[in-house]
Design a protein that fits this description.
2 domains; globular; Protein DUF721; two-stranded antiparallel ribbon; 3-stranded mixed sheet; GMP Synthetase, Chain A, domain 3; mainly alpha; 223 residues; 57% helix
């Protein structure tokens, strides 16, 4: 089952990894806590997070902090699974900028009052809570209108990034497909196609259903 889903959603999984990497990079300053800034995350693939280090020595020393990094990311990015840390390159970190030095300063979060590192206006934990509320609202929106595109939600969620919308839609698409393999259902099949194509319900016909569903799944539901 997992292999089938991986083949079907290969492109989507690559996009999900790219979105996850963006979140991991944005949270790195607070995960590092000014102690591990000699390394930087630069690739996330197959649930493995790859780092580049300023030197071979720095890369070697980081091996002893791998589990700490994973545990910290569980706190700041709970929706992303990291099975292993790897130091893939050394001597290739991007140079520091004045803005990056600012992110290393300790601040007080105006929401919870805790101290944190980073250049954002609030700490990552409070931002995660805020994001979770927005994600829930977008999910509810897509449950009502699975065909919705990014431009459709801007009136209700004007500050939502397109990458967030795409991530939520892809996750719903993956979950719906997984459900269909376990419990074939015509209504859920149509929902999956609406999420996948962005077509409105009046555009869905037998040919589109047959084209968009995996052959085996189509046979399980309609034959």
């Amino acid at each position: 089952m997992k292999n089938i889903l991986r083949r079907l959603l290969g492109g989507d999984l690559r996009l999900q990894e790219a979105l996850a990497l963006s979140q991991l990079k944005n949270s790195w300053t607070q995960v590092a806590q000014n102690n591990l800034l000699h390394i930087q995350p630069y690739k996330y693939k197959n649930k493995m997070l790859y780092f580049q280090a300023k030197s071979a020595v720095a890369g070697y020393d980081t091996r002893f902090f791998s589990q700490l990094i994973i545990d910290k990311y569980k706190e700041f990015c709970p929706g992303i699974i990291i099975r292993e840390i790897k130091i893939d390159h050394t001597g290739g970190m991007e140079p520091d900028t004045p803005e990056e030095h600012k992110t290393a300063e300790r601040r007080i979060c105006p929401v919870c009052g805790d101290k944190y590192f980073g250049g954002d206006s609030i700490c990552v934990l409070c931002q995660n809570k805020r994001d979770a509320k927005i994600d829930a609202k977008i999910t509810a929106y897509l449950n009502e209108a699975p065909w919705a595109r990014y431009s459709d939600i801007l009136a209700d969620f004007p500050q939502t990034e397109e990458t967030r919308f795409l991530r939520i839609r892809l996750e719903m698409q993956e979950e719906t497909l997984f459900y269909l393999w376990r419990k074939p259902d015509e209504k859920q099949a149509v929902k999956y196609i609406l999420l996948k194509t962005g077509l409105t319900p009046d555009k869905i016909n037998d040919n589109i259903i047959k084209e968009q569903l995996p052959k085996k799944l189509h046979k399980m539901i309609y034959e």
